[in-house]
Design goal:
Elements (H helix, E strand, L loop, with lengths): L1 H30 L22 H26 L1 H6 L2 H20 L8 H18 L3 H6 L1 H28 L10 H11 L4 H11 L3 H31 L6 H32 L10 H18 L4 H19 L2 H28 L11 H26 L9 H9 L5 H8 L9 H30 L11 H21 L4 H6 L1
Helix pairs in contact: 1-2, 1-4, 2-4, 2-14, 4-14, 5-12, 5-13, 5-14, 7-8, 7-10, 7-15, 8-10, 9-10, 9-18, 10-11, 10-13, 11-12, 11-13, 12-13, 12-14, 15-16, 15-18, 17-18
Length: 511
């Protein structure tokens, strides 16, 4: 099986290597023409029936080739179910990315293909988050929204602050050497490394099939904590830009205010676009063919609008998907709903595949690697220890108010499920090397953390769940009788709360 995968990767990478070599020869030939000008096209002396125009199609061809490689790799991985039942698909894709990146580097000594923040945030992340929001089990999500928000907001701030300040405290002892990093740079690094990646968590938890309550809490936390992480990252990045000596109490208050403005503002933008999408789909019954297009375009516009207004784009597209799903499904035809479902799943799956592959490819470039053993090991230690402490303390508080208690076994899985992924890598790649002198050290450490959490924890979480005998989810299609009784019970509970003047989960769910 391993030989087949390697052979396939080499065969598929061969055109790419040849193209890279030809591109190198072309550039060297152009520079040696004298005058330093661009390549002068040859004037044909006769009609050429067939010509080779690689540079005319280079970029779209390479993109299509990478997508093909990633798709074929998924087919190869799933030919033998023994492989994917032991090793998560995300781990296999990272290893494949390392292999292909190594082949390209060996051929041209240039890391031509890396996961850039622009590509990730504008093209790869939106379909993944939209898919998560649109297919979010709303009953579970809103029933556990308070728990999810506590873990996502308070937990993320706790992890970012404690990790950054602990690393700074150890740095002051001199163990890490002379790094020329201030406390704000450590807090900036702590904010980006606190991002629990929904892509990595979803990829592992869907294969493990943990119970619904545990799944929605961990998945919801990882989804919303991305938005919190990006907001914290922008606040600390602004503090680093203006300089530590200029960060006054007023600036700190502005940072706290911006945290709530960016988060709530992004959510409101998503809700507005969700209702706009719901309204538009009411009038599409005569043009059914373009119904799916509205779902994708308007949802993507919510993401771009929030980005344009410096609000949380992740929260915008998440809540756009959550709030529009019920109305859109009722408004559009059955064929359009099927098209939306399969297209959204295809785009999300493709984006996840490319993200994990490029996490492997991006690590091949030796120019980004700066090694500091103390910094890397302590980062791994602190993010693990402080996540455990945060989960235990927050769960102890929550269990005093929750009807469904989170047991010790659930807390172990939640602590162990804090996988880092492409969000942390994209944020660290956004750092300005002029302002943050230790950028390459931060990048190297982030790659190590991502690989450790996705590969090591991803490989061991399934045996851990089986050993702890965590309650699994039991998916079955609800019968008509169950649906009718469940809906009637919801309305009765919300009516009782309304009559008694109490506002609880049922009242909010009904609204």
């Amino acid at each position: 099986m391993k030989n087949i995968a390697v052979s396939l990767a080499i065969c598929l990478a061969y055109p790419l290597i040849s193209a890279a070599l030809q591109d190198k020869d072309h550039k060297s030939g152009s520079s040696s023409d004298g005058g330093g000008g661009g390549h002068t096209p040859e004037v044909p002396t006769s009609l050429q029936i067939v010509t080779f125009k690689w540079h005319h199609v280079q970029e779209p061809y390479i993109i299509a080739l990478w997508i093909l490689v990633a798709s074929l790799a998924k087919i190869v991985f799933h030919i033998s179910h023994k492989v994917t039942t032991v090793v998560p698909e995300s781990c296999l894709l990272i290893v494949l990315g390392l292999l292909l990146g190594g082949i390209v580097w060996a051929a041209d000594h240039i890391a031509s293909f890396t996961l850039t923040p622009t590509v990730f945030f504008f093209y790869l992340l939106p379909p993944i988050v939209l898919d998560a929001g649109y297919f979010m089990p709303n009953r579970l999500f809103f029933g556990n929204l308070g728990t999810i928000l506590l873990y996502a907001v308070i937990g993320t701030v706790w992890n970012a602050a404690t990790t950054g300040l602990s690393l700074y405290g150890v740095y002051l002892t001199g163990i890490m050497g002379d790094l020329q990093i201030g406390v704000l740079e450590f807090l900036l690094f702590g904010s980006l490394i606190a991002a629990v990646d929904p892509v990595a968590v979803l990829a592992v938890f869907e294969e493990v099939h943990v119970n619904d309550v545990l799944f929605i809490i961990v998945f919801g936390e990882s989804l919303l904590n991305d938005a919190v992480t990006v907001v914290l990252y922008n606040v600390f990045d602004s503090f680093v830009a203006i300089g530590g000596e200029n960060v006054t109490g007023v600036e700190c208050v502005k940072g706290v205010v911006s945290f709530f403005v960016v988060s709530i503002g992004g959510t409101l933008v998503g809700i507005v676009f969700a209702f706009l999408l719901s309204l538009v789909t009411r009038f599409t019954k005569h043009v059914r063919i373009i119904e799916p297009g509205f779902v994708f375009v308007i949802s993507y516009l919510s993401y771009l609008t929030s980005e344009m207004l410096s609000l949380s784009a992740i929260l915008a597209i998440t809540f756009c998907g959550i709030f529009c799903q019920k109305y859109v499904k009722a408004n559009i035809s059955e064929q359009s709903a099927t098209t939306v479902r399969y297209t959204m799943k295809m785009l999300a799956s493709g984006a996840e595949t490319i993200v994990f592959m490029f996490l492997g490819i991006s690590a091949v470039d030796p120019n980004i690697w700066v090694w500091n053993t103390a910094f890397i090991l302590l980062t791994l230690l602190f993010i693990s220890v402080y996540r455990i402490i945060g989960v235990v303390v927050q769960t102890w508080i929550l269990n005093r108010y929750r009807m469904v208690q989170l047991e010790i076994i659930d807390q172990v899985v939640m602590s162990y499920g804090g996988l880092r992924g492409a969000v942390a890598f994209a944020l660290v790649a956004l750092l300005d090397g002029e302002r943050v002198k230790a950028k390459n050290l931060f990048v190297s450490t982030t790659i190590i953390v991502v690989y450790f959490t996705v590969i090591f924890q991803g490989l061991t979480i399934k045996p851990l769940v089986q050993w702890l005998k965590v309650k699994r989810s039991e998916h079955h299609e609800r019968k008509l009788n169950e649906k009718l009784h469940g809906r009637a019970f919801d309305h009765i509970c919300s009516a009782i709360e309304d009559i008694s003047g109490q506002i609880g989960h049922n009242y909010m769910r009904d609204k």
